[in-house]
Design goal:
- The protein has 1 helix and 8 strands; from the N terminus they run αββββββββ.
- With 105 residues, the chain is an alpha/beta fold.
- A hairpin with a 7-residue loop joins strand 7 and strand 8.
- About 14% of the residues have low confidence.
């Protein structure tokens, strides 16, 4: 095999190995509340907010990492890029709050 093939194979293996460990964590929004007040995840995981309410909501990170709009009866996602505790809230309904504790891989 050529050196290029080894490099290509190594990159493919690394990509598959990292993505195999990533998870999708679902947080339901129902009755004007995030169903899970505190969620634990890892860097690389995807958070999926499922809006079961009759109102549009957001998941807005207080540290500025993300601000996603979650339409009525829809799902919105974000991939966690760094470790740490992230408090978030709904910009339209500030009493709706949650926290994601993100651990390194």
């Amino acid at each position: 095999m050529s050196p290029r093939w080894h490099l290509f194979a190594a990159l493919i293996f690394a990509t598959v190995a990292v993505s195999a460990h990533a998870e999708t964590i679902t947080i339901t929004i129902d009755k004007m509340a995030f169903a899970t007040l505190e969620t634990h995840a890892k860097v690389g995981d995807t958070i999926a907010w499922v809006n079961k309410d009759a109102f549009v909501h957001t998941a807005t990170a207080r540290n500025g990492d993300w601000d996603v709009t979650i339409p009525i009866k829809k799902t919105a996602t974000v991939v966690l890029k760094k470790a740490g505790a992230i408090d978030y809230y709904c910009r339209f309904h500030p009493n709706m709050k949650g926290k994601i504790i993100v651990d390194a891989q």
